[in-house]
Design a protein that fits this description.
Layout: E1 2-3, E2 17-18, H1 19-25, H2 28-31, H3 35-51, H4 57-75, H5 88-100, H6 113-147, E3 154-159, E4 162-168, H7 169-194, E5 196-197, H8 213-220, E6 224-225, H9 229-234, H10 237-263, E7 271-272, H11 291-314, H12 329-351, E8 354-355, H13 357-362, H14 370-379, H15 384-401, H16 410-416, H17 424-427, H18 430-435, H19 445-460
Parallel strand pairs: 5-6
Antiparallel strand pairs: 1-2, 3-4, 7-8
């Protein structure tokens, strides 16, 4: 069933839109989130129209006053939203015209919703990036605070989820600090590329009303104007980059979550999770489940899906604007919300984490020191490959005897290689193993102190 309704674009139509099509076509249910950016852009555009001689001073003042009233109504929750408005641009224009009268219809002179929405989204992205970078910084600060007192706290380092070499808890925590530092950098980088004003590009071919786009860019805080109107109205690279950066940040959160799920389990007990970020079982009274971590891990797939979906939407579009681009906002907004909440939750998990050093040290396997044994032989002149082979044989001997490397008699060592002497015991010490790895980026306390200073310096840059 159809109905006749007056749309801002309805002059060439003789019939009404199907009711289902109206709902299918409308984006007001989700793009209303852009109301601040839409009104900010419209204020600047009204001033630009005045500068171009399209609006009188009185008309511009009336529009600015009306836009302020619209903003106040929305802020106060008094704005009457209607699906009939189709999108945020038409909703604001409809209410502006009700307040200011026919002059409201002049605001769209030389402007298309194509360049309008592209501007709104870039303005929104500017704020979203700033907020996410701050949330990342908060999480990094929590990691740094947990790392500072744990330079000598021993824990097993894993590869392939098998015990590999001893590391410090501080070194482990800082490994995630640098992942999130890269994430902050990615958001900064994409913001630089997105710092470009499309407004004034019109529907696709540019403006005919003498808009000073360079002035408009300065007015809205953009670094530059877009250089091609066809590209400007269809470019959603910034959206894809934003979700891509967010997907990587979520991936890093997921990796941290996976580790902490394992380390807090009854098989490890390296850490205890706060009650504030865990839940229980409706059946099993003893359960304390790491739901915050599991949800962060699960929501990572959601954000990756948002990226895949947007890329699939963009991949086959002809130049220039197409309605498919309406599908960019929901994944963009959902990605922001998901990442922002996940960062806040995981920052809370990290800040309240209780390390259990006794449990971590008890978990240390002698075989973690196998590489140190090989290095011991290398220092005595044996080529590394031969040292590797020798120590591998000692590990096999331990497995046969069901003992650790520190329990093997010296004669067994010397039978494998005469270079072993009484001082081999010095190589079979977990703290000593930490201390010798003092090259930049290593797990030695001295190297980790340097790393902490570097981390502090990175956070001070903002």
């Amino acid at each position: 069933m159809t109905k006749k309704k007056q749309n801002p674009w309805g002059g060439r139509f003789s019939g009404g839109m199907d009711r289902l099509m109206e709902r299918y076509n409308a984006s007001i249910s989700f793009d209303r989130r852009l109301w601040r950016e839409d009104i900010e852009g419209s204020r600047a555009y009204a001033e630009a129209l005045k500068r171009a001689g399209v609006l009188s001073g009185q008309e511009c003042a009336a529009l600015l006053k009306g836009l302020a009233e619209v903003a106040a109504e929305i802020e106060a929750g008094k704005f009457a939203w209607s699906e009939a408005d189709e999108d945020i641009h038409m909703a604001v224009e409809r209410r502006l015209t009700e307040i200011a009268g026919p002059v409201g219809g002049k605001l769209h002179t030389g402007r298309s919703r194509n360049d309008q929405v592209a501007t709104d989204m870039r303005l929104w992205l500017r704020g979203a990036v700033a907020e996410l970078r701050q949330e990342l910084r908060t999480l990094q600060q929590a990691l740094l605070e947990q790392a500072r007192p744990r330079l000598k706290t021993l824990m097993p380092g894993f590869t392939h989820l098998q015990q590999a070499q001893p590391i410090s808890a501080a070194h482990y925590l800082l490994s995630f600090f640098w992942m999130f530092e890269r994430d902050r950098g990615r958001f900064s980088d994409l913001a630089l590329r997105a710092d470009e004003l499309p407004l004034g590009s019109g529907a696709l071919a540019g403006s005919t009303v003498g808009i000073d786009r360079e002035w408009l860019a300065r007015r809205l805080g953009f670094a530059r104007v877009s250089r091609n109107s066809l590209d400007a109205v269809s470019d959603r690279d910034f959206g894809a980059e934003f979700i891509s950066a967010a997907a990587l940040a979520m991936l890093h959160l997921s990796r941290l979550a996976e580790d902490l799920i394992i380390y807090s389990s009854s098989g490890f007990r390296f850490v205890k999770l706060s009650d504030a970020y865990t839940t229980g079982s409706s059946l099993m009274p003893q359960k304390k489940n790491p739901d915050a971590l599991e949800l962060a891990r699960g929501k990572t797939g959601r954000v990756i899906g948002n990226l895949t979906g947007l890329l699939a939407t963009l991949k086959g579009l002809p130049s220039t604007y197409n309605k498919d681009l309406q599908e960019d906002k929901e994944p963009l907004f959902d990605t922001f919300d998901t990442l922002a909440d996940s960062l806040r939750i995981i920052a809370g998990v990290v800040a309240t984490l209780e390390f259990q050093p006794e449990a971590m040290e008890a978990f240390l396997d002698d075989f973690l020191l196998a590489t140190d044994l090989a290095d011991y032989l290398v220092r005595k002149g044996l080529p590394f490959r031969q040292a590797h082979e020798t120590v591998g044989g000692l590990v096999l001997e331990c497995e046969k005897r069901k003992c650790g490397l520190r329990e093997l008699p010296l004669q067994v060592y010397r039978k494998r290689n005469a270079l072993f002497a009484e001082d081999v015991k010095e190589a079979l010490d977990f703290s000593a193993s930490l201390a010798v790895r003092k090259a930049t980026g290593g797990t030695a306390p001295a190297a980790v102190r340097k790393q902490i200073r570097q981390a502090e310096a990175a956070l001070k840059k903002d």
